[in-house]
Amino acid sequence: MAVEQSLDEAFFKAGTSFNRPIPGQSLTDSPDAPRPFEGPPQFTDRTKLLEHYFEVLTEENTYESLLDTLESGMSIMEIVQTLLMQGFQEGLFNPDMMLMVAEPLAYMIAALAERAEVDFTIMGDEDEMPVTEDQEMSIMDQKMKTIEKPQMDEDFPVGLSEKLDKVEAPKQRSLLGEK
């Protein structure tokens, strides 16, 4: 809850700040120095883009940070949104590709979290009804019975799925040596 509140405050602060370009400013910028997202994208193939994100997310420090972020309560979709917005701004892909890789990227992060035995939420729901402890246990039991492993998209790249199965979770994730 504290993470969501601090994120909301950060977005509000950024959205109400006057330290940003004025509307239409990009139309007066020099065409000789376009911003990264104004040029051609680096990735036009969905599989190659997903492989790029796989390489980035499985780097040792990044993987540990990803798991720490999930443990702090941030949902997978919030992480996906952040990664995709940053990738678009860096000119990695166009908005159409961003929509095409959102779901497979979420599956990838879920598989990496499951590999490290980290509990995660797919999407945080602020309007969720309060649940008693007994109801929560019954819901968890049902979910555990129905979902053994995150189900991959039917057109999720096979080679990437095999790489995900071979990823090893970090052994030590904190200075204290706790899991």
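Second entry:
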Amino acid sequence: MEETKILPNTWKTALSLLLKRLTSNPAKPARIAILGVGNQFRSDDGAGVLIARALSKCECTQDTDHLLVIEAGHAPENTTGELRRFDPDLVLIIDAADMGETPGTIQWIPAEDIDGMSASTHSLPLSMVAQYLTLEINCTVALLGIQPGSNEVGEQVSPEVLQAVHEIVEGLEALISGVNLPVQVRD
């Protein structure tokens, strides 16, 4: 049998397959945490925070206890206590990441590939946060990266990155609704 390879830019497919794997045991519903990471005062770097904020308003994330959405800001390591208490099977980090692509490009980045991602606006590199979560909570960690156009000081997000934010929010709403995950939201 031939192994299926997922192309890096097929984030919906990669996340969908991972969610199917995690939700395959009806006796133990999967617990999923979504971390919106970034600095909203650094232009496109605020994309992850915008996504978490939009998801927190989505009907699909209300009244549940198996999905946690967190606006992690520029210091995602500050959420580790809450994540430990929540005990997720998957932590999906969403952040602007310099991947050398066109601004607004969205890529699925497995935990083992996070090491090479640039996150100069964060307190700790995401690779350290991902490694800690994997070891401490024993969960799967993945990154959904959005190529920024600018990380300059300012609250204006570029149109390309704003389009990517909308695409990710719509895609996650559909995936969450499709797997019927119960959700917790924290601002």
